[in-house]
Amino acid sequence: MSERPVIHMVDLAGQYRRLKAEIDDAVLSCMAAATYINGPEVGLFAQEMASYLGAKHVIPVANGTDALQIAMMASGLKPGDEVIVPAFTYVATVEVIALLGLVPVWVDVDPRLFTIDVSKLSVLITSKTKAIVPVHLYGQCADMNELMQIAREFNLTVIEDNAQAIGAEYTASNGEKIKAGLIGDIGCTSFFPSKNLGCFGDGGALYTNNDALAERIKMIANHGQKVKYYHDVVGVNSRLDTLQAAILRVKLKHLSSFTEARQLAASRYDKLLNDVPGIELPYRSEHSTHVFHQYTLKVKSGKRDGLKEHLQQQGIPTMIYYPLPMHLQKAYMNDKYMKGSFTNSEQLCNEVLSLPMHTELEENTQNYITDTLKNYLAHA
Questions:
Q1: Is 114 left (phi over 0), alpha (psi -120 to 50) or beta?
Q2: How far is 355 from 371, CA to CA, in rounded Å?
Q3: Between the CA atoms of 107, 304, 282 and 55, what dihedral angle is there, to the nearest 10 degrees?
Q4: Looking at the whole model, is its pTM more than 0.85?
Q5: E strand or H helix at 50, and its extent?
Q6: Which residues contact 151 (CB under 8 A, 6 or more apart)?
Q7: d(Cα 199, Cα 251) in Å, to the nearest integer?
Q8: Residue range 174-191, pLDDT digits in tens
Q9: Which residue ranges form the domains of the chain, and what is each CATH number?
Q10: How far, in whole angstroms, is CA 312 from its chain's centroid?
Q11: Rounded-to-integer distance, Cα 377 and Cα 371, Å
């Protein structure tokens, strides 16, 4: 009997071993220079990231949640303003809305794409609506062509939550190909270690092609100052550490190959799981490439939790992103939104299951994962 492989949901140690020499050199150089805050690596990373994305401005910050908050502050949103946000998302997208005294207006998601259902947007827009936050969940873009038409018609700011789709490419209505995060007014991303481009701690960034917005973002992220000790607006203290920037500079050089490795792993999953009864494979948008931050199945007929437990028993980690939609979370519940308000989001919370996905995933490991999955479903 063959030995069971050791399986990681995300193999950060394996990726580090592969890049060890480059990363160690970058970190040791920072330590030798002792420029831990706002060192030259931060500015260099911002320039290189801008070049990769095709962005005029990239502003590194301390984490992805800060990026979202700063984007809303820079957009001039005021307490009481309404922000449309999908009910099926990670909490960071929503908590910054609440922290700023804004009002989240939930919208359901497309059950195939897992992203905002644009067909439901127009009826939600009121005189108080000021922004839309599409979330590019699992690695591909929301339906941005129609969303941007609606946003421009009603003069709404579009803040893209691009924490999971860095490097994805969207085809606009005119045929132009645009990197995710640069379709709307501001893009926000996270460099949390498990992300497609991850550092060794917390980190994030905002990007935009709007000069005035970029200037305001920089000020807000730096205590509201353009000149030291002269504070023009209320700001925050949010900056990317020099050490993290150095690590990200190394990883950015490999991001395209990271994406290719994830896409290859996803293709193998597709082939191995094609025509398996009781599951639905990830759907590919016709307008967006998919960078597979997650490879997420829909497991039907109430078998998701049993499958998850079985896989865990066989040494296969999985994750449920996410088990409860935002409108049913205790912190954000109100009488306006009850169970049954957003059927797609609620159903997805009962069906989604993400399989191991990372740059080091090998074919024999995927064979074991899919054989175990198929065996369970065949007898469940």
A1: left
A2: 13
A3: 50
A4: yes
A5: helix 40-53
A6: 132, 157, 158, 184
A7: 8
A8: 999 999 999 999 999 999
A9: 13-108+115-253 (3.40.640.10), 255-379 (3.90.1150.10)
A10: 25
A11: 10
